[in-house]
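seq/struct pair 1
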Amino acid sequence: MSRHITLLKPGLATSIQDQGRQGYYHLGIPPSGAMDQYSFRAANLLVGNPETAAVLECTLMGPELRFDSDAVMAVAGAEMVPIIDGEKHPTHTAIAVKAGSHVRFGVMTLGARAYIAISGGIAVPEVLGSRSFYNLGAIGGLDGKKLDTGDVLPLGEPSGSLHSHAELPENLRQPLAKQADIRVLPGLYDHRLSDEGRETFYADSWKVASEADRIGYRYKGGRPLAFQPRQPPFGAGSDPSNIVDAPYPIGSIQVPAGVEPIILHRDAVSGGGYAMIATVISADMDLIGQMQPNYSTRFVAVDMAEALAARAAYQQRLADLRAFFAA
């Protein structure tokens, strides 16, 4: 007998995501996948799934669901209280949900993305090794389209390995805050900034703009950045931040016209003509996905040794999370 849930309301930008698809960015297909990889994995482990099973990623406002099968559900990441048949339940906790239950969610009070994991995982077909939805390419997810009212989402078979640790302790949850220091490595085109422009970029406080999604996060509120004077090379535009087209790494920061920095995230295009003045270190990419509009950021320059140490610390946090559920 097949298991599934029905989407009664899709929420603001709910999509099916997993660990993402690697190895195709050179062909223009970005990794996609959960914006907060740590919380996505925590949600799965809570319900006894493999940590990379597909989940629902909710942005700012959750969906409404009808469970058509008995299942276990957990919400991790942003603070978004699940409400099952009118009764509130805690986040970061495995919850048994009966077939026929109506599930909705409260206002997202802290953070920007919550992950709804359901035992068995969302069992849509894989595309290029991932079930993640990529909107610009219309691939992955449910038939390569945005989720909508009435969609029926198939569930896989539960592993049967539901853990006795039904609640994730505070020290293993993703820390959430309305202000975050984002660590960056100076980018390939750092030299295009003037000394004054570089000082301004790192000294000012920037706020997340309303144009913040899976493709990129735009920031505002800092002073305009000055670039080095130059004669545009052949093939580059006249904007002082323009370069001859080059590939973009995920996490790279460009500042069109020197006004509003944009961080490219997991659904970003793979190349273009804007100078990349810095790149967010991998350990801090999850934090960006948890920032709502008007949250504030300071960019902090680090060197390669510090970036590698931060990555090792992130991997240790994941190891601690897995060890908790393996105990």
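seq/struct pair 2
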Amino acid sequence: MLLIRLAVRNAFRHRLRSFLTILGVMVAILAFGLLRTVIDAWYAGVEASSANRLVTRSSVSLMFSLPMAYKDKIRAVPGVTQVCQGNWFGGIYIDEKNFFANFAYEPQTLLDLYPEYVIDDPAQRSDFLRDRKGCLVGVKLAKRFGWKVGDNITLRGTIFPGDWVMTVRAIYRGARSGTDESQLFFHWAYLDETMRVNYPSRAGQVGFYMVGINDPNKAAEISRAVDAQFANSLAETLTETEKAFQMSFVSMSEAIILAIRLVSFVVVLIILAVSANTMAMSARERTGEYAVLKTLGFSARTVALLIASEALVISLTGAGLGLLLILPCAEAFGTLMTDFFPVFAVSRETIIYGVVAGVAVGILSGIYPAMYAARVRIAVALRKVG
């Protein structure tokens, strides 16, 4: 107990230096946590994937569509429970800066395949399923633009030309924290019927199929069975798990993610060097004090432990303050970057990594000063003081 009190008092004896060191550790841990959260946000779609869902798309590219006639053939494959056709719509709301994900799906199957999209009001769910020009929006998206149920909105088509008027019929929330609540879904029939009138050659074309399966362990087998049906056709397919599908997008940014990951560790290494230098300076300045402690009967091991504890107190104080600031800072950052990161939440792993980083900085920065203090010879040290 005495050792702890001494460590705490000595840690804050030089207030300005201790304050600056704690500030540095706090900023470093905060930056580390935010960078880790950015990486997690990049993988949010992957983490939200279900093992019971497959994606069937053109084997050439997502740019190429598939015939609507494939739906029944995919549905007939053993192990397949549901099939939902979908298209990435890519519509713009008022201005390009208002980006958000918007898709055309067959609505009933969409809600069956994605139980994580929860519509609390049964009347809203019914209205959405009934109205072909109705749309379903996430609660974050509705809050962002101030939409309410019954509002009419217009998306300007980019892939599918024209102004697309639709009515907000339902608002969903995520059943779990990682669910993207900033998407818009509308009826695939609305898209197809409009294309049939204005661009008949593009009617009956599907961007991809979401496939529900009854056994995740048979995902590879079912995927091969689906693709085998369309082998050597004009539109061959590639079927993969939803997780692999999402990973294909993340892998396009792998270099950026790796750079962010490296920077997060470099930040910790920099503050480790700064903290170690501060503790080393403090140890050299207090050589005479160590000699006095040893003269009073403190063992070399106790003196070393005292110095290491001081480093740990400073580091953990800074790390604790940094971790306390992560949640509000992440919320503010996520609000500013909602166009790019629909899901931006600090994970439990990030908090644990922050604590580990704080402890590691404290221990590693205290090793040299502790060894120095333990090796101080009483006569030599007191001679320097004199």
